[in-house]
Each structure stands twice: as structure tokens, then as C-alpha cells.
Specification:
By secondary structure, the protein is α/β, with parallel strands linked by helices. It has one domain (2-216): Ribonuclease Z/Hydroxyacylglutathione hydrolase-like (Metallo-beta-lactamase, Chain A, 4-Layer Sandwich), CATH 3.60.15. It has helices at residues 36-45, 66-73, 152-162, 186-192, 202-211, 220-227, and strands at residues 2-8, 13-20, 25-29, 49-54, 76-80, 90-92, 97-100, 104-110, 119-125, 128-134, 137-138, 141-142, 171-174, 184-185. The protein has a 6-stranded mixed beta sheet, covered by helices on one side. The protein has a 6-stranded mixed beta sheet with strand order 7-8-9-10-13-14. The chain has a two-stranded antiparallel sheet with strand order 11-12. The N and C termini lie far apart (34 Å). Bound molecules: fe (ii) ion. The site of fe (ii) ion has 6 residues, from loops. Residues 57, 59-60, 114, 135, 143 line the site of fe (ii) ion.
């Protein structure tokens, strides 16, 4: 498996390239329009065929490059079924699998809370797991729950009952980081996460989330409608 973590500065978004080296097929998770040219360059230089552009959710802070990638590279666009987007080719239901080439199976899991339809993706590598946690679990923090049908209670259940029951050494790759961290593990988040440690109860988590004073994302009025059309290109 070839794996690359790519970063977009303006929205501090991580995009992930995962490819099967046998068949040279690749996917991008959470690709960003601003870095479209860079991502196409990387795919071409590595002699890969992009088969899917996959989103974890309808982003509010940046526009996805999924439509543009489909137009230019002929990939399919995939994401959660509950987003109800007609522009997607593949609509995941909980526990669906996405096959990349002939060596990689990615499990799509429903992880609501940041948005009600939010999905995360898991790769099993023998006994070890890699988790692409989207905006649900971030490094030492978690995604906000104050818009887009977010729910602190649902996010608590997602993180505690799904993520924190995964093996301690599961590598966690989030969709964002604002402090130059690039990965974490489940065991570290259980002890170090400042919003949702392994020991916090639901009541205190809800209070913490309510006390966050977060700015409205600058691009929300552009990003959300555009992402509901898979980041359409003119
Ligand atoms: Fe988000």
C-alpha cells in the first residue's frame, strides 16, 4: 500500500492518498479544490489511476475537489448515503466496503455527531488498523457540533463507543489539524484529548462543547452549497 498525507494550508485540511501498488489504483480522501493541481500532479507522477474521490462529510470550511477530479481523471465520487447527494456515484451505508485495486479494503462507518451523516474510513492491516476520522476525532480535540445537524451527544457516542473501543495502537489520521500534528493513536487520545478523554462523561462533554467559542467558518456560505453538488465545476 502506498500512503501519502497531504496538507492544504488555508483550511488546514489533510487529504489522504491511498493506493494499491499491484494495480496502481488510488483513492483520495477529502480532496480540496485549492490543491487540485498538486493532487493531480502527484497521481500522474506516481503513475496511478484515481478510482475514487471520497468525502467524509459535507465540509463547511473548504470546497471538495471531487467533481473536478471526476471530470479530469475519470474517477468516481463517493461519500455518505445520508448526505443525499445526487452528484455522487457511490453512496455509503454503514459498514460498506470500498475496494482499492486488489490489495486494499476500506470499511466505511457511520460516525455521526460533527454532522449527522458523517462517515469515517478504516483500513485493516493484519491486526493493525488505520482510522481516517474526518472531523469527528481530531488530534487532542474533536469536531464542532454546533451546526450542520451536529450533536454533542452523538459525537460522544461515536468517539466513546466506536473509536475508543478500537485497538489502542490504531493510527488516527484526522481531516484537519491546526497545530502541525499529523497523526495520533487511540490510546493517546483516550489519555490526552482535551475535549473528550477516555474518562469524561456525557454531561461534562456536552458542557465543554457548549462553552467553546468558535467563529463561524469563513467559507461556509460558499462551501456548503457547493459541496452539496460535490464541489461542482463551472
Ligand atoms: Fe467539517
Amino acid at each position: 500500500m502506498l500512503f501519502k498525507q497531504l496538507f492544504e494550508n488555508e483550511s488546514s485540511t489533510y487529504t489522504y492518498l491511498v493506493s494499491c501498488q499491484e494495480k496502481r489504483e488510488a483513492i483520495l480522501i477529502d480532496p480540496v479544490l485549492e490543491t487540485l493541481d498538486r493532487d493531480i500532479d502527484i497521481i500522474k507522477k506516481l503513475n496511478l489511476k484515481l478510482t475514487y474521490a471520497v468525502d467524509t462529510h459535507i465540509h463547511a470550511d473548504h470546497v471538495t475537489s471531487a467533481s473536478a477530479l471526476r471530470e479530469i481523471l475519470g474517477c468516481k465520487v463517493a461519500g455518505p448515503a445520508n448526505d443525499n447527494l445526487k452528484c455522487r456515484d457511490i453512496n455509503f451505508k454503514d459498514s460498506d466496503n470500498l475496494i482499492v485495486g486488489n490489495t486494499i479494503k476500506i470499511k466505511a462507518i457511520h460516525t455521526p455527531g460533527h454532522t449527522d451523516a458523517h462517515f469515517s474510513y478504516i483500513i485493516n492491516m493484519g491486526k493493525k488498523k488505520i482510522l481516517f476520522s474526518g472531523d469527528a476525532l481530531l488530534i487532542n480535540t474533536c469536531g464542532r457540533t454546533d451546526f450542520q445537524s451536529g450533536s454533542s451527544k452523538e459525537l460522544y457516542n461515536t468517539i466513546k463507543n466506536i473509536f475508543y473501543t478500537m485497538p489502542d495502537d490504531t493510527k488516527v489520521f484526522p481531516a484537519h489539524d491546526y497545530n502541525k500534528n499529523n497523526l495520533t493513536t487511540i490510546v493517546r487520545q483516550k489519555s490526552e484529548n482535551q475535549l473528550i478523554s477516555g474518562s469524561i462523561d456525557l454531561e461534562n462533554f456536552i458542557l465543554k462543547m457548549k462553552s467553546l467559542k468558535l467563529d463561524r467558518p469563513k467559507k461556509i456560505d460558499i462551501a456548503v452549497p457547493r459541496n452539496m453538488e460535490c464541489g461542482f465545476i463551472n
